[in-house]
Amino acid sequence: MNLYKDTQLFGKIMNMVQDLEMNKLSSNDVKEFKLLRNERLDKELIKKNLFIIMTGVIQTECGNGNITDFIREGEVLFVQPIRNDKQQEWLPEYKAITSCKIIQVSKEFFLNFSSIKPSYMELILQMTANKLMYVMNDSRKYDLSVEERFDFSLAELGHCLGEQVEDNSFILPRYINKNKIASFSKTSRKYTSQRLQLLENNGNINADGNNISISSIDF
After folding, report:
1. Do residues 106 and 30 touch, judged by C-beta distance below 8 A?
2. What is the mean pLDDT of each run of 10 residues along the chain (219 residues)?
């Protein structure tokens, strides 16, 4: 997830998609599909395509369901398999946590087309740079104490996925439950419940089941 959603940049992405759609050579070059809640992106499709998230949220999992990121509408998923020291391919898992509408673009078609219009490659690189900025900011939490890491992660979820209301607090979407908060903050489910209770007692949040409103946690 990006720290800030760049609507102007996403508008350029949509103009690019329209151009690709008009000039595609086959139905598989550019197509729209839906991913239902709890469905995963097929890894063979990931290797051959890039994806533009139109609606919904996808979580990135790296081993044992460990959540490392959330990809939301307005973002581009463009990844290549990583090879380990045994030359084995590895890709994260990408799981929809809400129903999603996604545009799929063939990497081969895109790379060929962007040789004619290099601005499209520059656009994807800009989206990738935005993601890298997020990753660099997010990595700061691993140098923090458990309490600070949890608070940082919770505030991050609020700013990136939450709805900002009039009093400048952020309301987390209901799909971000305690299990997801625990996984994203690299803490236990028990610790998450305890920390949320303490933050509520201190007036930093208001928690009613999965309805969590974050009022005063520094990002």
Report:
1. yes
2. 66 93 96 96 95 95 88 89 76 95 97 95 89 83 91 90 84 93 94 94 85 78
